[in-house]
Structure to design on (1486 residues):
């Protein structure tokens, strides 16, 4: 033990305190370890007050570190080389707490100075710390001001406190050092690095709690010191610079891995402290709350757009959950040393208000904005007025809808009367149609459930609202999507009008196809969010939900959208190395998340369809299968599709002209010529100054048209015994987005750099205005037949009844959703369509593509006696037996068979085509059904003739254990994925601030040369 | 400047290539098309279940107003004689009587005969039955023959009239287990009428009900009646008779027509020579378009030859018209009516106006595509029975006629060659059963007709349910 050297302290106080400095170093495989250690040791020696003894603890043997440590002993030129150094080697895996504990028995002196390889003290740091200890005997340890090694004006830590619930809060972390805290003294705790601890206190407190995993060690030590009756003093004038990569304290959050480590350690420490500090009686409850709290914190991390930190949270929670020993040890330590009450700590804790103020101070310096984002100008730019005008046009086009409670016709059907039933249709399990025990629901049913929930008292009215709101919503979506392409109000307005007047939207409204309408309304928002999905988690979350909804409404768009996603992913991966603006890897993670909800929702369908060998059925349009008018897979049909029209009659012009001037019908096929200005502008986009955006949008257009052209050749769903081709309109919606966007790019960027003079600007503006008018006026003219179709009576849209079944069954079915009705419809070719409808009505959300895409022709040799395996065979056998068997014995069998399946009613649809075969089958069926003893005729309705089965009807079998289990897991997975997406998408003040720093327009920088 | 120019050049070149490629790709797909995929919808063929057959005959010949104290009382004038034919021959056939509460009977029979043949070992019996009756009374005389028919939800009666001397009766039989409610719609010159007497006519289960046509409509010379039933199907028929100034002019039982059709073929129309000199046999065609106005083409072709006479007539929907088919020589004719809209038709032939005359209504025959049983009812000696077979399509067909059941020992199987679009006749034995097999082809239509001194009658052969094909169900 060397004699204590003469003090050179500037304080001039007599120093009798002997200081033992412990420097813990760990080779972390990087060069700075040895370098930092050297610097630290040199700084310690060069101090105005040198420690009396210096112990270097090396975690693991490392040549560089050993050299650095021994060099310091051998060095003769450096000041203070005479300071003896003791080198201790401990296990490499030892933490800072471990290392200090292992040196505990070597401790000599009155105080121990805790240092690490990266803590470089200022020359008079130790002197001031010692002075603090000397000044007040009650002080258990004194903490220095930690500053950034690279920037001494940035405070790393200056005192730590905690909230009432125990969360650690740094008092000045990250602040700019303006000596604003230099008056502080009493603190609850501090960072562990650089503190000078009285040796007796150090022994009483038994060092650092090893259960803390490196975080909050100083805070915990301070808390325990205060409980032991001591004080903790911060000495702002004693400055220690830290690099943040040493074994002590928390590593600086410079990359993703260290951020995760910090999160895990901090959470682990917080849980450990909570269990250690809590009253004994509360500990079991605190322990039980660990995992639920982890779930809650998962939600918080999602809202905070930091999903990468969820795994560390769970890691910390699980460790805390199982590490009883650490808690017991910590509690024992506290109990043995505790002399003061917890209440004495209260004044040093941070209050809610103080913490909020602290957070606000931190939030203020988010850094300067990279790009100044201009105002949106939704109102002043005219967007709001276009939406309003579209609403007026919508009401004028569909005036009757204001009074209709339910829409029907085409692919429309009523919705269930209650919201609960709507959502039941969206879950895996018993379908609303047919005898299947369980089939995966279409994701579209979930979309319908969301839509129907808008008007809970009468969900069908939501569809009416959708129809009335389609034009204004399309305008709104188009306007906002255009903000990703241009800042010019006139062009955004062009996009709004163009999207609302898209021929494919109008066709889907007039030939009612709800799925296509919803897809068209969602596509611009998908574009709006998807184009910035790589920028933020918020956008990625929103995109993932929109993609899910769009693919749910139009599965045939999945290949094209998947291709676009792949392109985006390739660009994100390629750009990963070049760009540093967004954290590395996050762009890719965000893009990958975009497709995950869609994949989760599609998975049950994919499994089901692939297993039955009908993978093509995945492309099927959801909802009611309707063999309505559409362009076919013929030369004429394909030409119409390539020109943007999903029907063979372009925009309804042929029937319109036929009604106005029948002689001019041949001219109607020239209507597509009205789209020429738009097409020309779009095709010029790749040579415009924003050629990259132009090429991408033309690619979108080609993909969309390709999808539509392929769609008409794919017929997977069937109704009434005929396969129905896919609706090409959804593909055309995508194509329209590409064409409209490309035209916008052309008009926005132009081809040449224009002069800056007032005259040139005016000339360009005039040119642009002319072009916009040239696009808009023909578009408006083109829309005339479709917008007047409803008032002219040329639309398939009609007022519907609340139920597709007769009111009698509907009333029964409303109370009992398991009421089965066998709907028999004779078809014009003398065949029979048979459907089992459960509940009060066939509904839009109750449709299933799995059922609609079933294939295969089979024959049941034993229609009555045998029990065919497939549900289809069973329905067919019962239906055929019901309508063909006339004898009593067989007849009763058929009715009983139906009753055994849970069917309570039989509805025979009317024969209306005038076909003899249909009439004959209808008459025969009616004859036979009327004769049946087990059937009671309820009466003829507009929907057909209804019979009630008077025999006891077996209740519809409920889902068995296995189905309930599968349904439960699917529901959990789907809810979880949607929940995560929603939480990610919810904007927070900080996410909004972050978004403001980037340009609203995507891909604005003209990459190519411009003259 | 050079770099700028080069960059612009590159941009324009790349952009132009992309634009042209995009247009070319779309154009290529439009021209060439995309390979597609069309799913085969799920469909299940269900063969018809073996069912028992239930046929109801028209019942005894009835007379109205014989009892002076009760002018509307209907009494039995002559019992019917039922002949059945069943294949396979071993099948058991049951006959039972339905009751006719409103008919007073002197003999055993007051209602019609219900003929049933249960299905045998999962195979349906092919059953046919027909009845005949003959009467010679001051108010009713003549010979009537008709086929026993299945009950129907909707059927048409073409025949009869409500002129002076006519005593026509609509006969409704319900062989089912529940009561039927029948609506009778009468089509006359004013179009369709629903007379109060024909509204909600309840026919109790297992009974026959008789409704005088005179009570339904007055003054309609050539009515057509639509019978629509609910609750249970009914078998409808029309008994028509006439007395011309105390001289009975004949009697007939007219079977129902199952459905209106765009092509109506009435084979086996018997045209006879006048019984007495100076008397002229008359043949008329009554027809009506049921749903839409149309122009009908009427073709009258004698059996065995190909010399057809055709004419056109325009029809108003719902208004029956009657045309005289004048100038027909004695023989068997096939009358064909085609139109673009569904219609119903029947041919009336009367041997004359003098005493001892008889008349008959010939109704359309449906197409037979599978082997079908034919029952030829008994007839008095001197009355010959003929089976007329009319071929459709464009190719001649070979039809096999096999006698079934007990009776004469020698089963003489006859093969008939039916020319395309023509017809042949073959004599059959009254009181015998046959099976007619049209072979594989477009199918034939057939009718049985009777001719003799003061006797004429005929009825078409209906296909039985056993011959129906598999039902395709799209679940």
């Amino acid at each position: 033990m060397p004699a204590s050297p003469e003090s050179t302290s500037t304080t001039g106080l007599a120093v009798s305190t002997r200081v033992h400095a412990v420097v813990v170093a760990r080779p972390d495989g990087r060069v700075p370890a040895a370098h930092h250690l050297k610097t630290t040791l040199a700084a310690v020696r060069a101090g105005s007050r040198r420690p009396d003894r210096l112990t270097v603890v090396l975690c693991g043997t490392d040549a560089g570190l050993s050299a650095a440590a021994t060099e310091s002993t051998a060095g003769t030129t450096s000041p203070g080389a005479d300071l003896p150094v003791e080198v201790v080697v401990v296990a490499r895996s030892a933490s800072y707490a471990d290392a200090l504990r292992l040196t505990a028995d070597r401790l000599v002196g009155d105080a121990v100075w805790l240092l690490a390889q990266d803590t470089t003290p200022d020359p008079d740091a130790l002197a001031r710390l010692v002075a603090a200890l000397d000044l007040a005997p009650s002080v258990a340890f004194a903490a220095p001001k930690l500053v950034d090694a690279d920037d001494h004006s940035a405070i790393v830590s200056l005192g730590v406190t905690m909230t009432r619930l125990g969360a650690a809060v740094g008092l000045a972390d990250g602040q700019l050092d303006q000596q604003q805290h230099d008056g502080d003294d009493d603190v609850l705790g501090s960072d562990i690095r650089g503190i000078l601890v009285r040796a007796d206190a150090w022994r009483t407190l038994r060092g650092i709690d090893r259960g803390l995993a490196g975080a909050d060690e100083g805070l915990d030590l301070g808390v325990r010191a205060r409980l032991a009756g001591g004080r903790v003093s911060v000495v702002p004038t004693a400055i220690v610079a830290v690099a943040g990569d040493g074994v002590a304290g928390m590593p600086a959050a410079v990359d993703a891995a260290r951020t995760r480590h910090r999160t895990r350690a901090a959470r682990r420490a917080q849980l450990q402290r909570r269990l250690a500090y809590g009253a004994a009686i509360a500990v079991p409850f605190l322990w039980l709350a660990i995992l639920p709290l982890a779930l809650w914190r998962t939600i918080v991390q999602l809202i905070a757009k930091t999903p990468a930190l969820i795994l560390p949270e769970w890691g910390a929670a699980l460790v805390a959950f199982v590490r009883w020993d650490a808690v017991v040890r910590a509690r024992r330590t506290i109990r043995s040393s505790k002399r003061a009450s917890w209440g004495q700590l209260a004044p040093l804790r941070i209050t809610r208000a103080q913490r909020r103020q602290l957070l606000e101070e931190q939030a203020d310096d988010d850094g300067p904005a990279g790009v100044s984002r201009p105002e949106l100008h939704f109102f002043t730019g005219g967007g709001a007025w276009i939406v309003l005008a579209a609403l007026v046009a919508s009401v004028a086009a569909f005036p009757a809808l204001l009074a209709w409670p339910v829409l029907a016709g085409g692919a429309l059907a009523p919705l269930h009367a209650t919201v609960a039933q709507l959502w039941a249709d969206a879950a895996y399990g018993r379908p609303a149609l047919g005898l299947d025990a369980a089939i995966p629901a279409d994701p579209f049913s979930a979309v319908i459930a969301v839509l129907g929930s808008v008007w809970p008292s009468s969900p069908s009215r939501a569809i009416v609202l959708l129809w009335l709101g389609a034009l204004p919503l399309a305008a709104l979506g188009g306007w906002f999507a255009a903000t990703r392409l241009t800042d010019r109000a006139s062009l955004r307005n062009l996009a709004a009008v163009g999207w609302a007047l898209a021929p494919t939207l109008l066709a889907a409204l007039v030939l009612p196809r709800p799925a296509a309408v919803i897809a068209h309304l969602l596509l611009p928002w998908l574009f709006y969010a998807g184009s910035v999905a790589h920028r933020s988690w918020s956008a990625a979350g929103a995109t993932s939900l929109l993609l899910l909804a769009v693919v749910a409404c139009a599965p045939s768009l999945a290949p094209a959208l998947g291709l676009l996603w792949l392109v985006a992913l390739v660009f994100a991966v390629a750009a990963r190395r070049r760009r540093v603006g967004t954290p590395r890897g996050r762009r890719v993670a965000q893009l990958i998340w975009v497709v995950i909800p869609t994949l989760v929702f599609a998975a049950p369908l994919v499994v089901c369809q692939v297993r039955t060998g009908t993978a093509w059925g995945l492309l099927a349009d959801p909802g009611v299968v309707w063999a309505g008018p559409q362009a076919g897979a013929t030369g004429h049909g394909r030409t119409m599709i390539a020109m943007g029209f999903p029907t063979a009659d372009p925009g309804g012009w042929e029937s319109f002209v036929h009604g106005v001037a029948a002689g001019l019908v041949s001219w109607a096929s020239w209507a597509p010529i009205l789209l020429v200005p738009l097409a020309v502008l779009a095709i010029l986009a790749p040579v415009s100054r924003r050629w990259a955006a132009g090429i991408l949008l033309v690619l979108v257009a080609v993909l969309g048209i390709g999808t539509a052209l392929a769609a008409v050749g794919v017929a997977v769903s069937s109704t009434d015994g005929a396969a129905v081709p896919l609706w090409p309109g959804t593909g055309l919606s995508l194509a329209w987005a590409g064409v409209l966007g490309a035209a916008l790019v052309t008009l926005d960027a132009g081809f040449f750099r224009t002069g800056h003079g007032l005259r040139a600007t005016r000339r360009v503006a005039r040119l642009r205005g002319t072009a916009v008018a040239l696009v808009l006026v023909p578009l408006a003219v083109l829309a005339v037949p479709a917008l007047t179709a409803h008032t002219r009576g040329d639309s398939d849209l009609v007022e519907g009844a609340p139920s597709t079944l007769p009111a009698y069954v509907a009333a029964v079915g409303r109370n009992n959703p398991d009421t089965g009705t066998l709907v028999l419809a004779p078809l014009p070719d003398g065949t029979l369509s048979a459907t089992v409808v459960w509940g009060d009505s066939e509904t839009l959300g109750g449709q299933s593509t799995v059922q609609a895409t079933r294939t295969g022709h089979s024959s049941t040799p034993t229609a009555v006696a045998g029990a065919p395996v497939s549900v289809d065979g069973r329905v067919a056998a019962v239906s055929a037996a019901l309508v063909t068997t006339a004898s009593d014995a067989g007849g009763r069998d058929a009715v009983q068979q139906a009753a055994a399946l849970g069917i309570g009613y039989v509805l025979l649809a009317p024969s209306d085509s005038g076909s003899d075969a249909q009439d004959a089958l209808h008459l025969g069926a009616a004859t036979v059904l009327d004769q049946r003893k087990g059937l009671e005729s309820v009466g003829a309705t507009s929907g057909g003739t209804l019979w009630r089965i008077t025999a006891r009807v077996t209740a519809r079998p409920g889902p068995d254990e296995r189905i309930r289990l599968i349904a439960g897991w699917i529901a959990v997975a789907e809810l979880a994925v949607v929940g995560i997406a929603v939480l990610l998408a919810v904007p927070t003040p900080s996410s909004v601030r972050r978004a403001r720093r980037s340009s609203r327009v995507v891909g604005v920088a003209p990459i190519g040369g411009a003259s | 400047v050079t770099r700028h120019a080069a960059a612009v050049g590159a941009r324009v070149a790349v952009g132009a290539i992309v634009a042209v490629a995009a247009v070319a790709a779309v154009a290529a797909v439009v021209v060439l098309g995309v390979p597609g995929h069309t799913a085969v919808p799920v469909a299940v063929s269900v063969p018809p279940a073996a069912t028992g057959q239930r046929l109801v005959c028209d019942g005894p010949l009835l007379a109205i107003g014989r009892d002076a104290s009760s002018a509307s009382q209907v009494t039995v004038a002559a019992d019917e004689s039922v002949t059945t034919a069943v294949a396979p021959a071993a099948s058991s056939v049951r006959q039972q009587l339905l009751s006719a509460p409103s008919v007073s009977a002197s003999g055993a029979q007051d209602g019609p005969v219900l003929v049933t043949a249960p299905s045998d070992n999962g195979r349906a019996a092919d059953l046919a039955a027909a009845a005949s009756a003959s009467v010679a009374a001051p108010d009713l005389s003549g010979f009537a023959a008709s086929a026993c028919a299945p009950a129907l939800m909707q059927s048409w009666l073409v025949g009869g009239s409500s002129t002076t001397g006519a005593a026509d009766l609509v006969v409704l039989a319900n062989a089912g287990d529940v009561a039927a409610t029948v609506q009778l719609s009468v089509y006359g010159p004013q179009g369709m009428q629903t007379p109060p007497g024909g509204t909600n006519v309840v026919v109790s289960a297992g009974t026959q009900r008789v409704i005088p046509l005179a009570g339904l409509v007055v003054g309609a010379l050539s009515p057509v009646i639509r019978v629509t039933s609910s609750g249970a199907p009914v078998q409808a028929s029309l008994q028509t008779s006439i007395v011309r100034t105390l001289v009975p002019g004949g009697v007939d039982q007219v079977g129902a027509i199952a459905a209106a059709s765009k092509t109506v073929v009435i084979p086996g129309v018997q045209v006879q020579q006048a019984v007495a000199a100076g008397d002229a046999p008359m043949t008329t065609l009554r027809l009506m378009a049921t749903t839409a106005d149309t122009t009908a083409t009427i073709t009258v072709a004698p059996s065995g030859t190909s010399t057809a006479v055709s004419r056109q007539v325009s029809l108003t929907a719902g208004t029956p018209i009657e045309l005289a088919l004048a100038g027909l020589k004695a023989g068997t004719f096939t009358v064909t009516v085609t139109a673009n809209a569904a219609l119903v038709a029947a041919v009336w032939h009367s041997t004359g106006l003098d005493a001892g005359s008889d008349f008959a209504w010939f109704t359309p025959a449906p197409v037979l595509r599978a082997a079908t049983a034919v029952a030829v009812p008994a007839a008095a000696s001197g009355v010959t029975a003929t089976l007329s077979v009319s071929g459709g399509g464009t190719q001649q067909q070979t039809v096999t006629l096999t006698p079934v059941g007990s009776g004469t020992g020698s089963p003489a199987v006859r093969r008939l060659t039916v020319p395309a679009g023509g017809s042949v006749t073959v004599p059959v034995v009254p009181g015998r059963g046959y099976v007619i097999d049209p072979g594989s082809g477009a199918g034939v239509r057939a009718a049985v007709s009777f001719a003799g001194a003061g006797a004429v009658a005929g009825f078409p052969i209906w296909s039985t349910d056993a011959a129906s094909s598999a039902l395709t169900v799209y679940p």
Remarks:
- The first strand of chain A starts at residue 19 and ends at 25.
- Residues 59 and 363 of chain A are 38 Å apart (CA to CA).
- Residues 1-14, 861-868, 886-891, 1005-1011 of chain A have pLDDT under 50 and may be disordered.
- The first helix of chain A runs from residue 32 to 46.
